[in-house]
Amino acid sequence: MTAELVLQILLTVAVALVGVGLFGALSQQSIVMVMMGLELVLNGVLLAGGAAWYFLTPELPDAQVLVVVALVVMAVEMAMGFAVTVAIYRARQVDMVDMATDLRG
Amino acid sequence: MTELSGWAFTAVAVLGVLSVAAGIAVFVVDSMARATFALLASFLAVAGVLLALDLVYLAVVTALMMTIEMAVMAVFMIMFMMNPAGLMPMTMVHNAKGSAVIGAATFVVLAVGIWTIDWPTRNPPRPDDSTRQLGEAIMGSHMLVMLVIGISLFATILAGTVLATARGRYDRFGPDLDADRPDDPVPGGFRR
Amino acid sequence: MPEQTLAEAWGLAPAVLGVVAVGLILGLVVAAVDRAVVVGGTVGTVAAPLRDGARLLFEQRRTTLAPDRLLWRLGCAAVPTLALLSLAVVPVGGRTLWSTSADLVWFNAMEALLWAAVWLVGWGPNAVHALTGGYRFLAQGLAYELPLMFALITAGLAAGSLRTTDVVTAQEGLWFVVTMPVAFVVFVASAAAFAFWGPFTAPAGPDIAGGVTSELSGVDRLLVDLGRAVFLGAAAAMATALFLGGDAGPWLPGPVWFLLKTFAVVTALVWVGRRVPVLRPDRTVEIGWMVLVPMTLLQALVVAVLVLNGFYA
Q1: Taking the CB of the first residue and of the last residue of chain A, which one, N or C, has fewer CB atoms within 10 A?
Q2: CA of C162: how far to CAs of C89, C111, C149, C218, in Å?
């Protein structure tokens, strides 16, 4: 098993996570489930970043820093997502994306 | 490129399959608790892969952050979903076919890219300690990243609190802000 | 890799067995000391937890209406597993089962996974008291998690390493408890909190009929109670390694000193913990964030200044 093949397999797993997450984020109606889809996309980013560090540039810290940034993006997404969900639910008992289409043109 | 040892490759393969399977399960199972913990399983599988790739710190920090996040997520799932335990199965999706096509197309495009690109086959030097490498980077050459992260997290704390709470200081301390003790629904530890 | 890990020295399987044995002994010590403090020590004190455990092993499981069996069993099995995994990075006798460059974060991650496990134990049986207990544990977790992280990182800061063996080595001159008493107390109190024991027993409190443990029976109850005891023992061992100089001591061999110190921490923890009334999670959150977070941050600042002055070098 060459290293290149392992890298390609790992990246394929990562984009599979991205694809599944994208499907979830686009198809789910509940705001919380949409956030779970986005988390899954970022999970793929974590995996791809780790694989890139190990197989491509282990001498540089950049890929690791990218993974840290992805983790922070997850935390921010989660915190703001919950805050928005609570706010919109408090304002008008809405917990589904289909009911929050005020900005539709 | 560096080869993975035999057991590491086996672990990575099993965990990779597990992460995708758990990711699919998130949108298949009826119970919201199970969906949340399927997502956690996916995160933990990715953390396991990172562990096999020598990224110890990132692996444990992923496990740590995502576990706490999913525990909090479970609270919100049960608070907001109509059918938290999945005892009455229902589907809550829109445009499932279109979404599936977009998801699959993204996967195919990226996968084709992955399998057709010529990846570099050089053999770079490996650091002794990936944790030290990361620590020195974010406290040295990449410090700007850390500064931006810190400020955005602080902004998130403020913005999240402002959005999520419906009560302001006038609710707590009265219209003239002259109450001695705030009027809180939960008294808190100091009995103020 | 500065030192050999236990897995490298003994081979993987014996090392794992050794750590499991140490974990079970620590759990038994916690249970026996607890019993001795509560009902007074007799010859049967050590045997009582064993007897209870054996009885639970053969007890028939009772169940509830429409439980989430998969998640329930997973949660119950995870509690002792995580306790043993957290013990894997504790340097009992100078060696850890396996050594990473982020041991302290590993310990913290195992304890964070306990959030999920305990919540699942509460969620599984589809019962109101159990679920209330699960929510109480999360609320309590929000109170102790940040002070615990700061306490752990303070020890790592002084040693300049997240590896537990390095932390022990760094204490050759002076035990860390002298310069970081706040971190030590916060760490031990957090240990009681994440094992939801003593004053932090609200998630399993008698006011909600036993909370997360209310619907447990047979093997499940054994696993959860065992896990809590082992977690307390593992945390006491970790406190010994991080703040009390690990296995340093005159005359006696290192591992003996380590176990003696761990025993002392367990005894102190149980003796004090059994004399403090149960704290309500809604109060602990405010105290945790308003008092403990600033205090542990100040503690870290003091230690950081000492590090810059070369105090620990």
Answers
A1: C
A2: 11, 16, 12, 39
Neighbours of B168 (CB within 10 A): 9
Cα–Cα distance, B90 to B82 (Å, whole number): 9
Domains recognised in chain A with CATH numbers: 3-96 (1.10.287.3510)
DSSP single-letter state for residue C95? B
SS3 sequence of B38-97: HHHHHHHHHHHHHHHCCCHHHHHHHHHHHHHHHHHHHHHHHHHCCCCCCCCCCCCECCHH
Shortest CB distance from B61 goes to which of C70, C105, C135? C105
> Can you list the residues of chain A whose pLDDT is less than 70?
1, 105
Nearest-Cα distance to chain C for B139, in Å, is 14
Q: What is the pTM of this model?
A: 0.90
Q: What is the mean pLDDT of chain C?
A: 85
Average pLDDT over residues B93-99: 82
Q: Can you count the helices (H) and strands (E) in chain A?
A: 3, 0
Write the single-letter amino acid at B127. Answer: P
Q: What percent of chain C has pLDDT over 70?
A: 97
| Chain-chain contact of A75 with B43 (C-beta, under 8 angstroms) | no
Alpha carbons C79 and C227: distance in angstroms, whole number = 5
CB contact at 8 A, B68 and B31: no
Q: Which residue among B93, B103, B120 sits closest to A29, beta carbon to beta carbon? A: B93
Kindly state the helix (H) or strand (E) to which residue B155 belongs, with its residue range: helix B143-164
Which ipTM value was assigned to this complex? 0.90
Spell out a b/e string for B109-135, using b for 16 or more CB atoms within 10 Å of the CB, else e: ebbeebeeeeeeeeeeeebebbbebbb
Whether residue C71 lies within 8 A of chain B, CB to CB, comes out as yes
Q: Which two tokens stand for residue C54?
A: 């054996």
Place of tokens 């099995």: C77
Categorize the per-residue pLDDT at C3 as very low, low, confident or very high, splitting at 50, 70 and 90: low
Asked if residue B86 lies in contact with residue A96, where contact means CB atoms within 8 angstroms, the answer is no
- Best CA proximity match to C278, nearest among C222, C207, C214, C213: C207
Which has the closest alpha carbon to B58: C268, C146, A53?
A53
pLDDT of amino acid C1: 41
